[in-house]
Amino acid sequence: MECIYCGSQNLLYDYMHGYIVCSNCGTINDDIFMEHYIPVKDGEIFKFKGLPTVREGFERKLAKNRLRQLAKVRRDVKIYENFAKKSRRGVYVDWDALQKRLQGDKSRIYKHVAEDSIKRAVDMDRLVRIIIEEIIEQDPVLSSRTLRGKVALAIILKHMILDSNIDMSRIAKETSLSKMHIKRLLTLIRTRMEFINKKLIELKSIVPKAISISQ
């Protein structure tokens, strides 16, 4: 097919507007989709109805996509609200984690308001990070705790490694947990000593190095 004006074979099919256009001279050579109108009386007003143009087809498709996206957002918000109603004081639903959960992931969707500050504190304490990585995350029971629980466990184990007193009130304050919760975690550690004692002894030998790195 050649351009009816300049004879060029460089023709572009403009599906958005429904035309065949010459890329050389810009001449519209033909319509991709012909429109056929028939008059339809609506009261005293005549309207023209016919087959949709290519542009209208795209616009309808985009409109449907927007409606589907809006419906998904509404559904997700409703799910979010249902989870939020079940949350405890100081706990919120993490939207990103919820999206992963809806896609089949097993991410924790509930997060405590203090988790971000706790993460920053952990990043500043190398020994606590080592304990979490080398002991807590390797133990099937201890690793099942929440972030705050893991950090509290790590702080308790840190005191054990350093042979210092375990101040439950201070640990409770640092991790935004109750003192009773800290007591339960301490009991949990005692039940797991058979499995983690060897690693504790190993960490005791590298404590000076770990502390010097963190300073």
UniProtKB/TrEMBL annotation:
Domain of life from the UniProt record: Archaea
Domain TFIIB-type: start-end pairs: 1-30
Entry annotated with the keyword Zinc-finger: yes
Keyword Membrane among UniProt keywords: no
The entry's keywords: Metal-binding, Zinc, Zinc-finger
Single GO MF descriptor: zinc ion binding
Name this protein carries in UniProt: TFIIB-type zinc ribbon-containing protein
Origin species: Ignisphaera aggregans
